């Protein structure tokens, strides 16, 4: 009888322990499900990325202007409410990821993608740096069709740039469910700065990124502010409807606006340069020191003019190129102003005054196309496909 009673108590004890464990797990799931990591602001947009250890990716995104909050978590697998122990063991199919809440009026999705390239290695799909396995695989998890299109365009441009010397393999997938990680993982770089710095240094992450990007390691996010890539929304309005709609430049449909329309669309300086043949001040213009890869187009029409591949530091204080992006991209005119004879450069379709060409440039042409920033709009390489200039990517991307 004692044995039977003892056995009964043992069963009850096991049931109690199991019930307690289940209650604790349920409480943990409920707490994580109802967590307030996400900002309560309907005006914020959401994006999800994976780039290896989520401590690093979260820290990277929270430094970007316009990002309000970044939340560490798990996605890409089928296990509901996975724990760190489960994910890190590679048993759930999930990867460590970060969900980014950002103000779309202060930073664009393209800006977040550009930031991602400065946080991880998109050519390695078997892990990231010292962390190996599918639980550390990179990924872009899109929330809608627009994000998918922008991500694919950015990936294509990054591949074309040849900056890594290896294929860009980062997958682009539709987001399933994002599960926030445990509280001790959130803002880890703030809560445990010493351990975080020790880990990041020994992981090799930032040594790799600095080696790849060199002096461009620190990214300027100001060009990724919507409607203010140059701090003036008027410049965006100055480009033709084809460009704004993502169709690039179509010479068959372009019609140059009249003077009154151009005065409304352009800034005073843009109008004076393109329509009245003025010259902007040296060293006090937007693109004289721009080092980013991309395409320079006419600010009035959007027609392609110059590639960053042909841009060089002339020391003059104006953006200078060794040649136009195509032999028929610009027109030459004799300029006899200021008691001298020079060769003026104008755009073909908009007939905008761009600048002048001189015979004191470097190889291979020996020419210096000295242009006015105010006459051009710059389209970053990673945005060219989405803007309708995909056919020009090979002219901009670094030769391999």
UniProtKB/TrEMBL annotation:
Protein name: Multifunctional fusion protein
Domain MsrB: 259-381
InterPro entries to which the protein is assigned, alphabetical: Met_Sox_Rdtase_MsrA_dom, Met_Sox_Rdtase_MsrA_sf, Met_Sox_Rdtase_MsrB_dom, Mss4-like_sf
UniProt enzyme class: oxidoreductase
HAMAP family membership: MsrA (MF_01401), MsrB (MF_01400)
Function comment: Has an important function as a repair enzyme for proteins that have been inactivated by oxidation. Catalyzes the reversible oxidation-reduction of methionine sulfoxide in proteins to methionine.
Gene Ontology molecular function, alphabetical: L-methionine:thioredoxin-disulfide S-oxidoreductase activity; peptide-methionine (R)-S-oxide reductase activity; peptide-methionine (S)-S-oxide reductase activity
Lineage start: Bacteria, Pseudomonadati, Pseudomonadota, Gammaproteobacteria, Pseudomonadales
Active-site residues annotated for this sequence: 53, 370 (nucleophile)
Keyword annotations of the record: Multifunctional enzyme, Oxidoreductase, Signal
PROSITE patterns, A to Z: MSRB
